[in-house]
Design a protein that fits this description.
single chain, alpha/beta, 379 residues
């Protein structure tokens, strides 16, 4: 019920299943006790424009989701959450053992648990982002100023030495459990490369017949193209707005975006810019941050960003918009000029594809999915 790109994949997969096999019952294990079936499906339609057939969808509510929250494991978070996913899987299978078990959340240890106790149940994984990657391991030795993730530069000293060894040991364990999955799909070439490196040897050893494949996540390109006409007349309606569509999570690096925008505003008085008065009839540049808020932690993060915006004197030039409906997103895509994404190693970048479909100029981090699959040379 978070309203992000990962959830879009889940609901689009269920939609495709209902279309291909109308009589199949799709069971969704969830820890969102605050939303019933009707409310959840209504949000899916409003947020993603995906209409589902309710009679063949069943929600089973789990009571152990806190075991996979990062707040439960302030130390050894990767290992703690992975072991917590086994508890979550036990909770799920206590309610119902499925005929086919598919994970879209990144709980490789839950899939391995399923294989141990129910070896005849086929398993599948749609991997949005590897729990650990070679890029993460390398980031420990990089400079924090390069913006390579939340742990950049933390590989120094005794604590850094221990962290490196812990991550390397966890990567080996992650590779072994990933080798148990029958069918593996990833959302980008970047993710596929890392999953193949980590899971490939174990999958080869276990003679898994299906190779790791890339299945790009569903993006509302058709709806955007139908709703937004790209021609000279409509381009005149564009505003000097920089749009950021991203969940309010730490790795999305909104802080960097706010500081960069503040620096941009300060530089405008002394130099020309791509968003200037001459092109927009004297209108001032504006930054619009649009994203979903999953929980109280995200709400606190938005509050902190508002405080930072006030400190940087951005308030007249910035707007925060949370949990916007799909029509609202379309409206802003139609009038903005630039779309930004500051995350290092964004696994795919659904928002970046939406920017390009709507005719925005994408300004994104030169890494991950955007670099390899989206913002690429034409021809």
């Amino acid at each position: 019920n978070a309203g992000g790109g990962g959830e879009r994949v889940l609901w689009a997969a269920i939609k495709a299943t209902q279309k291909r096999w109308p009589r199949v019952v799709c069971v969704v294990y969830t820890g969102d006790h605050d939303a019933d079936k009707d409310r959840m499906l209504e949000k899916v339609q409003n947020r993603f424009n995906i209409k589902l057939h309710p009679p063949t969808i069943v929600f089973l509510y789990l009571s152990t989701r806190h075991y996979v929250l990062s707040s439960t494991w302030p130390r050894f978070t990767l290992l703690g959450q992975s072991l917590g996913s086994i508890v979550l899987a036990y909770d799920a299978f206590s309610l119902l053992v499925p005929d086919v078990f598919i994970d879209t959340m990144g709980y490789a240890f839950a899939l391995a648990f399923s294989k141990v106790f129910f070896p005849s149940v086929p398993t599948g994984a749609y991997v949005h982002y590897p729990t650990i990657s070679t890029d993460m391991l390398g980031s420990l030795d990089s400079s924090p100023t390069l913006g390579k993730g939340l742990n950049a530069g933390r590989g120094k000293g005794l604590r850094g030495f221990l962290k490196k060894h812990y991550w390397h040991l966890f990567a080996r364990l992650y590779g072994r459990v990933g080798g148990s999955v029958d069918v593996v799909m990833t959302n980008s070439s970047w993710t596929a490369s890392h999953i193949q490196t980590l899971w490939g040897p174990a999958r080869t050893k276990r003679r898994k017949p299906h190779p790791v494949s890339v299945v790009f996540p569903p993006v509302a390109v058709d709806e955007i193209v139908r709703s937004i006409t790209l021609d000279a007349a409509n381009e005149k309606d564009r505003q000097p707005t920089i749009l950021c569509i991203a969940q309010f999570r730490p790795e999305k690096n909104h802080t960097l975006l706010l500081r960069s925008f503040a620096r941009f505003l300060r530089s405008r008085s002394s130099s020309s810019s791509i968003i200037g008065e001459n092109n927009y009839d004297g209108k001032q540049p504006h930054l619009l941050l649009l994203g979903s808020v999953r929980d109280a932690h995200d709400a606190t993060r938005v509050y902190d960003l508002r405080l930072l915006a006030h400190e940087l004197q951005l308030n007249p030039h910035i707007t925060f918009l949370t949990d916007a409906s799909f029509p609202t997103i379309l409206a802003h895509l139609a009038t903005a000029s630039i779309g930004v994404n500051c995350m290092w190693n964004e696994h795919f970048g659904i928002g970046v594809v939406e920017y390009m479909a709507a005719g925005l100029i994408p300004v994104v981090n030169d890494s991950g999915g955007p670099r390899m699959d989206i913002v690429v040379e034409w021809g």
